[in-house]
Specification:
heterotrimer; A alpha+beta; B alpha+beta; C alpha/beta; A: 2 domains; 5-stranded antiparallel sheet; B: 6-stranded mixed barrel; elongated; binds adenosine-5'-triphosphate; binds magnesium ion
Chain lengths: 410, 438, 244
C-alpha cells in the first residue's frame, strides 16, 4: 500500500521546504559527481606504471666541484664501484631519472627534412649498456647497446643507435592498437629516425618507460641514447635487491665520497618519494576534493536530518492522530521515507542535469575531461542511500509518538 | 531596541540547540572551505611587488628560425633569452635599471673548511638586481657596477644562509666558498621572499628566492651551469661552454625597470630596432620576428601562476557554500515558521511587520557572525594541515589581513541572504491564522 | 462489545505516580450508546484511550469484540483501531496539510481499500455531515463546528463497530452541539456502539446509559430513564456541570 498521492499533495502545500531540499540534493549530486570524477582522474594519473622495477631502485645526484680529476674517468669508476656493493644488482649514470620532474626532451622525425613528416616529442635518456638492466625495463624487441656504441659525454660524434619505448614507435610510425596486436611493432626495428638531419637507428624497443616529467602529453614516449653524460652535475640510478635497498642507501654518501671526496652527494631517494613529489599537486587536489565531498555530504545529510526532525516536531499531533486512526508504526516510518524518497528522486534527476552542466563548464574553462556517466550513477545511488539513512532515525522517532497525543493535546 | 532584538535572537538560538548547531556547523564548514581555497587563490594571485609591478618588465623576443614551426610558449615567444641577446640588451642604456639572470648552483662552504660543503642554488645577476626587485640589505650593499663588466668573485647572501653559515651578524668582508673558490661577501639581505617568485618562473612559481647572488659577468669565467630550463630550436653543435654562450639556446632570464610611459615607449622602440638589426645580419629570419614587454602582473598571468586546480577548487567550494546557504534557508524557514504562533501573538500585541522582519534578520546575522568566526578557526586549522603536509604551500597557505576580514563579511552576508526569505515569509504571515484554534 | 476487568493504569513521571484507573470494571454491549461523565482528572480520557487501544494498560484484562487485546503487537493493535474503532476528538485533530477529502481518506488508506471504494465512502461520509461541497477545502478554511463534522465523517467513513468520542462538542456552541448529537444518535440507531465522554448533563442524558468515573473507578451504575434522577445526579457536581 503506497500513499504517494496524499504525501505528494501535502508536500506541495509546503513547497518551499521541499524545493530547498531538492535544490540542495541536486547541487550536492552535481558537485560530488564531478569532484569524484576529478579525484579518480588524479588517482589514475598517479597510478600509472613507470616501467621501472620501482621497489628495487633508488637515485642520488652527484655534484663535483673538485677540478683535479677527469669526470668521464670518474663516472666509469663510480659505476663499476657501485655495481660491486653487496646487494646491488646494477647501477648506471643517467642524465635524468623517470618521474623525477627534471626534463630533457627532444623532437625526432621520421624523415630528415622537416616538412610533411611526423614529429614526435620524446623524453631523452642518456646512458650506457647498463641502463636497461638498472631501470629494470623490459626489452620486448631487438637488443641492448653494445659497449662500442656508447659514447662518452664529451665526444663530438653523433649517436647512431637508440632504444625506444613502445609508445614512441606507436607515435612515430602511427601504429594503432590493432597493428600492435598483429605484431607490427617489429617494423619499427631497424628503421631510422632523425634528430634534425642526423639519422639514428632503432635497435631495441622496451615495453614501457615513463618520462621524467609527469604532466606532459605522451608520458610514455621516450628514447634512450647511448651516451654517458659527464657534467659536473650527474645522476645515478641504483638497482638493488628490494630488501637491501635501505642498507645501500644509508651508506651511499660515505662510500661515494671515499671514492672521490671533492663532490657533494645528495640524499638518496626512492621512486616512492619521487612519485610523491612529482604528484604532490594531484595528491593534494584529490585530498582536498575528498574533504570537500565529505563536508558536502555531511552538510546535506545534516540538512535532511534537520528537516526531518522539524517535520516530525511540526507534525507530532498529526502523527498521533494518524496512529489513532489506525496507522501502524511501520506506516509512519514509511510515510517519512516515501516523502524523503520523492524529494531525493526529484533532486537527483535535476542533479543529473546540473552535473552535466557543471562538467561542461569545467571542460570549457579548464582542461578537464568529459564526465564518465558511471560517476553520476554512482553518486546518484550514494545520495539516494544517504537520504534514506539520514531520514531513518527521525522517522523512527516519529513512529514512537504515542497515539494518545491525539486526545491529550490542546 | 537593538539590544532587545539581540537578546531575543540569543534566546531563540539557544532554545533549539540542535538546529542551531546544525546551522552553525553548515555555515562554518562552508565558510571554512571557501576561505581555505580563496586564501590560496589570493596568495597565488597576489602582486609580489605592488609598489613596482607596473614598472618592471620582462622583454621577450620571437626569434626562432623559420626552419621550425613552433617554439617556446603558445604565442611563439620564449620566456627566456639566449645569452647573445641578453648581452646585447645589456649594452643598451634605455632602461632605468636592468639585469640578466641565470639560476645556477654550488657546493657551498663558509670560511670554516671543516664543515662539509652543501649543495645550494644561486643566482647570477647584475648589480641592479636588488634595487630593481626591492631586496632590502641588512648589511653592506650590492657590488660595484663595474663588476658587471669586469668580473670579480663577490657575493650577496640572504639572511637565512647568513644564519646557517655564520650564525648571523654582519659578515660583510668575509669569504664564502663556492665550489671551493673564495667569494667576498659584499652584502647581506634582510628577509626577502617574493611570492610568487616572479623574476624566474621557469622552475615553478612558488620556489623560495635563492640565498646566494653573484655577478652575471662570472658566467664565462667559471662556466656556470644552468640549473633551470634550457631550450633550443636549432640544430647546432654545443660541446663547450663557449659554444653554449654563442648558441640559440634560451636559458637566460632578463628584466628591465622602466619608470614611466615614455621610457616604456622608448624601450619598445629600442627593442624593435634591435629586431630589425638582427634581421639585417640574418640571425632572426622569421617575418614575424617581434618583441614584447610584459609587466609583472602580465607576466604572472602569462605564466599561469594561479593553478587551474586552485580555480576549480575555489569554484567548487563556492558551490558548496551555496549548498550550505540553501541548507540554512531550509532550516531557518522551518524554525521560523514553527514560531509562527508566537509571532502571531506578537503581531496582535502591536509588533509591525518591519519589526518582526528585523528581529529575525538580527537572529540570522548573529548566527552568521558566529558561523564566520568558527569558519575562520576551521580554515586556519585546514591551512595549518596543508602547510604541514605540503612544504610548497608553506607560504601560500597563510591568511593575510584581507582574508581574515573577508571571512566574517562573507559569513554574515551569506547568512543574511539565507535569512531574507524566511524572515520575509514569517513577517508576512497573517497573525489571525495562528490565533485561531489548533 | 467491550469488556474491562480490574484494569489499572498508572502514569509514572519523575515526580509523581498517578493511578489514573484503578480496578476498573466495565462492560459495554453491542449497539449501546454509553455516556461517560465525572470530575476533571478522574480518568475519563484515560479510559477512552485504553478502550480505543491508544494506550497500554498496566494491569487487567480487556476484551474488545471478543478479542483479548493485552499483549498484542503494534501492527495488530493498529489494525484493530483501524477496522473496529472510530475516534472523535475534542480538538478535531484534522491534518492541516490535507484537504477534507484527504483527511477522511487517511483511515481508509490504512485499511487498504481500493481507490473506488475509498472515493465512494468519503463522499458518502462527507454527504452525511453535509460538507460534500467543500471537499477540496483545507481544515483551516472551516469553522470549528464544520471541522468537527469532518472529524466525525472521518470516524464514520470506515464504518467502525465502535465509536469513541471525547467531549466531541466541547468546542462547539449549543446549537452545533445538538446537531452533532443528532448525528451520533443516528449512527447509533444504525448499530454502531458509541462511548462518549461529556461534561454536559443534557448531552449525557442522550445516551442509553450513563456511567460516572470518579478517581479512576466506575462510581455509579444507574440507568437514567427519567429527568428527576438526572437532575439529582448533577446536583452532586454543580461545578463540573458548568465547565463544559
Ligand atoms: N501522560 C500522562 N502522564 C502522567 N499523568 C497523566 C498522563 N495523562 C493523564 N495523566 C493523569 O491521569 C489522571 C487522569 O487523567 P484524564 O485525562 O483521564 O482525566 P479526565 O477525566 O479526562 O479529565 P478532564 O475531564 O479534565 O478531561 C489525571 O490526574 C492526569 O493528570
Ligand atoms: Mg479528558
Amino acid at each position: 500500500m503506497f500513499e504517494f498521492g496524499p504525501i505528494f499533495n501535502a508536500m506541495l502545500r509546503h513547497k518551499s521546504h521541499a524545493l530547498l531540499l531538492v535544490v540542495q540534493i541536486a547541487l550536492t549530486l552535481a558537485i560530488v559527481a564531478n569532484a569524484a570524477f576529478i579525484i579518480q582522474n588524479r588517482l589514475d594519473l598517479m597510478n600509472r606504471i613507470s616501467g621501472l622495477s620501482e621497489s628495487e631502485v633508488f637515485k642520488f645526484d652527484v655534484f663535483t666541484f673538485g677540478e683535479d680529476n677527469d669526470i668521464s674517468v670518474q663516472v666509469e669508476l663510480d659505476e663499476k664501484f657501485l655495481r660491486t656493493i653487496p646487494g646491488v644488482i646494477d647501477a648506471a649514470r643517467l642524465n635524468q631519472i623517470p618521474i623525477s620532474g627534471s626534463s630533457d626532451n627532444s623532437s625526432f622525425s621520421d624523415k630528415p627534412n622537416i616538412d610533411g613528416s611526423v614529429r614526435v616529442s620524446s623524453g631523452v635518456y642518456r646512458g650506457g649498456t647498463h641502463t636497461l638492466n638498472t631501470m629494470g625495463v623490459k626489452l620486448i624487441e631487438g637488443r641492448n647497446f653494445t659497449e662500442d656504441e656508447v659514447l662518452s659525454g664529451d665526444s663530438t660524434q653523433p649517436v647512431t643507435v637508440a632504444i625506444v619505448s613502445k609508445a614512441f614507435v606507436e607515435d612515430m610510425f602511427q601504429l594503432s592498437p590493432e597493428d600492435i596486436q598483429q605484431g607490427k611493432l617489429q617494423q619499427g626495428l631497424g628503421e631510422n629516425i632523425y634528430s634534425f638531419d642526423v639519422p639514428i637507428k632503432i635497435i631495441g624497443i622496451v615495453e614501457k618507460l615513463q618520462r621524467s616529467q609527469v604532466n606532459v602529453r605522451g608520458i610514455e614516449v621516450s628514447i634512450i641514447l647511448p651516451k654517458i653524460s659527464t657534467n659536473k652535475f650527474g645522476r645515478y640510478l641504483v638497482r638493488t635487491h628490494a630488501d637491501q635497498r635501505q642498507k645501500v642507501m644509508d651508506e651511499i654518501e660515505k662510500v661515494m665520497l671515499k671514492l672521490y671526496p671533492h663532490r657533494v652527494i645528495t640524499k638518496p631517494v626512492t621512486m616512492d618519494t619521487l612519485r610523491a613529489d612529482s604528484y604532490a599537486n594531484d595528491r593534494m587536489m584529490s585530498q582536498l576534493l575528498t574533504i570537500l565531498i565529505v563536508i558536502l555530504l555531511l552538510i546535506t545529510s545534516l540538512g535532511i536530518v534537520g528537516m526531518a526532525v522539524f517535520n516530525v516536531n511540526r507534525r507530532t499531533r498529526q502523527i498521533g492522530t494518524r496512529r489513532a486512526l489506525g496507522a501502524s508504526k511501520a506506516n509512519i516510518v514509511r510515510y517519512f521515507i516515501i516523502e524523503n524518497w520523492i524529494v531525493s528522486t526529484v533532486g537527483i534527476f535535476i542533479g543529473i542535469g546540473l552535473s552535466l552542466l557543471l562538467n561542461n563548464f569545467l571542460m570549457q574553462q579548464f582542461s578537464l575531461p568529459k564526465l564518465d556517466y558511471l560517476y553520476i550513477v554512482m553518486t546518484m545511488s550514494g545520495v539516494w542511500l544517504l537520504g534514506l539513512i539520514a531520514v531513518y532515525l527521525p522517522a523512527k522517532k516519529a513512529s514512537h509518538i504515542s497515539p494518545a497525543i491525539a486526545t491529550r493535546s490542546v | 531596541m537593538f539590544k532587545y532584538y539581540l537578546h531575543m535572537a540569543w534566546k531563540s538560538l539557544i532554545a533549539t540547540p540542535v538546529v542551531t548547531s546544525l546551522m552553525l556547523l553548515a555555515i562554518a564548514l562552508g565558510i571554512a572551505t571557501c576561505m581555505g581555497t580563496l586564501t590560496i587563490h589570493h596568495m597565488m594571485s597576489m602582486d609580489p611587488i605592488p609598489e613596482k609591478s607596473q614598472q618592471l618588465f620582462a622583454p621577450q623576443l620571437k626569434s626562432y628560425g623559420n626552419t621550425v614551426t613552433s617554439f617556446g610558449m603558445n604565442d611563439g615567444f620564449s620566456d627566456q633569452l639566449t645569452h647573445q641577446d641578453a648581452i646585447n640588451l645589456r649594452h643598451s642604456k634605455v632602461a632605468f635599471r636592468q639585469t640578466a639572470m641565470l639560476k645556477t648552483g654550488f657546493a657551498v662552504q663558509s670560511d670554516n673548511a671543516d664543515v662539509a660543503p652543501k649543495l645550494k642554488s644561486a643566482r647570477a645577476a647584475d648589480s641592479d638586481f636588488f634595487a630593481m626587485f626591492n631586496a632590502p640589505f641588512a648589511y653592506g650593499n650590492t657590488w660595484d657596477k663595474k663588476i658587471d663588466e669586469q668580473p670579480v668573485e663577490v657575493a650577496v647572501i640572504g639572511e637565512k644562509l647568513n644564519q646557517e653559515l655564520y650564525g648571523g651578524g654582519d659578515n660583510v668582508g668575509k669569504n664564502i666558498f663556492l665550489n671551493q673558490k673564495a667569494y667576498r661577501i659584499v652584502g647581506i639581505l634582510k628577509h626577502w621572499e617574493p611570492s610568487p617568485m616572479f623574476y624566474d618562473l621557469t622552475g615553478g612559481s612558488f620556489n623560495r628566492a635563492e640565498q646566494i647572488f653573484i655577478p652575471f659577468s662570472l658566467l664565462p669565467v667559471h662556466e656556470l651551469p644552468s640549473w633551470g630550463s634550457n631550450s633550443s630550436w636549432k640544430n647546432e653543435d654545443v660541446y663547450t661552454y663557449q659554444d653554449k654562450l654563442k648558441s640559440e639556446t634560451h636559458w637566460i632570464q632578463y628584466w628591465v625597470e622602466l619608470t614611466d610611459v615614455q621610457q616604456q615607449q622608448s624601450y619598445r622602440e629600442y627593442l624593435s630596432g634591435y629586431i630589425n638589426e638582427q634581421k639585417k645580419i640574418g640571425r632572426f629570419n622569421r617575418d614575424d620576428a617581434t618583441a614584447d614587454l610584459k609587466n609583472v602582473i602580465q607576466w604572472l598571468t602569462y605564466n599561469e601562476v594561479v593553478s587551474e586546480d586552485n580555480s576549480v577548487l575555489v569554484g567548487l567550494s563556492f558551490l558548496l557554500l551555496v549548498v550550505c546557504l540553501v541548507n540554512t534557508i531550509g532550516l531557518l524557514l522551518a524554525k521560523f515558521l514553527r514560531r509562527a504562533p508566537e509571532v502571531g501573538v506578537r503581531r496582535a500585541l502591536g509588533a509591525s511587520k518591519a519589526q518582526v522582519f528585523l528581529q529575525h534578520l538580527i537572529e540570522v546575522g548573529l548566527l552568521g557572525f558566529s558561523g564566520g568566526l568558527l569558519g575562520i578557526l576551521l580554515a586556519q586549522l585546514g591551512l595549518w594541515l596543508l602547510r604541514s603536509n605540503y612544504g610548497s604551500y608553506e607560504m601560500l597557505a597563510n591568511m593575510d589581513m584581507t582574508m581574515l576580514l573577508t571571512a566574517p563579511v562573507l559569513a554574515i552576508s551569506t547568512s543574511i541572504i539565507a535569512g531574507l526569505y524566511p524572515a520575509w515569509k514569517i513577517c508576512r504571515t497573517q497573525p489571525s491564522i495562528y490565533l485561531k484554534s489548533q | 462489545m467491550l469488556q474491562m476487568q480490574k484494569i489499572n493504569k498508572i502514569y509514572r513521571t519523575e515526580l509523581v505516580e498517578t493511578h489514573a484507573l484503578r480496578e476498573f470494571n466495565l462492560t459495554v454491549k453491542e449497539g449501546e450508546f454509553v455516556t461517560v461523565t465525572g470530575p476533571s482528572g478522574s480518568g475519563k480520557t484515560t479510559f477512552l484511550n485504553i478502550a480505543g487501544l491508544l494506550e497500554e494498560i498496566s494491569q487487567g484484562k480487556y476484551l474488545l469484540d471478543g478479542v483479548d487485546v493485552v499483549g498484542l503487537k503494534d501492527k495488530e493493535l493498529s489494525r484493530l483501531r483501524n477496522e473496529k474503532i472510530g475516534f472523535i476528538f475534542q480538538s478535531f485533530n484534522l491534518i492541516p496539510d490535507l484537504n477534507l477529502f484527504e483527511n477522511v481518506d487517511v483511515p481508509l488508506r490504512y485499511r487498504g481499500f481500493n481507490a473506488k471504494q475509498r472515493k465512494r465512502r468519503i463522499e458518502e461520509a462527507l454527504e452525511k455531515v453535509g460538507l460534500a461541497a467543500r471537499m477540496k477545502h483545507l481544515p483551516a478554511q472551516l469553522s470549528g463546528g464544520q471541522q468537527q463534522r469532518v472529524a466525525i465523517a472521518r470516524a464514520l467513513a470506515g464504518e467502525p463497530k465502535f465509536l469513541l468520542a471525547d467531549e466531541p462538542t466541547g468546542n462547539l456552541d449549543s446549537l452545533m452541539a445538538r446537531q452533532v448529537m443528532e448525528l451520533l444518535k443516528d449512527i447509533n440507531k444504525q448499530g454502531t456502539t458509541i462511548v462518549m465522554v461529556t461534561h454536559d448533563p443534557a448531552l449525557a442524558r442522550c445516551g442509553q446509559r450513563n456511567i460516572q468515573i470518579v478517581d479512576g473507578q466506575v462510581c455509579d451504575f444507574s440507568l437514567y430513564q427519567n429527568k428527576e434522577q438526572n437532575q439529582n445526579q448533577f446536583q452532586q457536581h454543580p461545578n463540573e456541570a458548568t465547565t463544559a
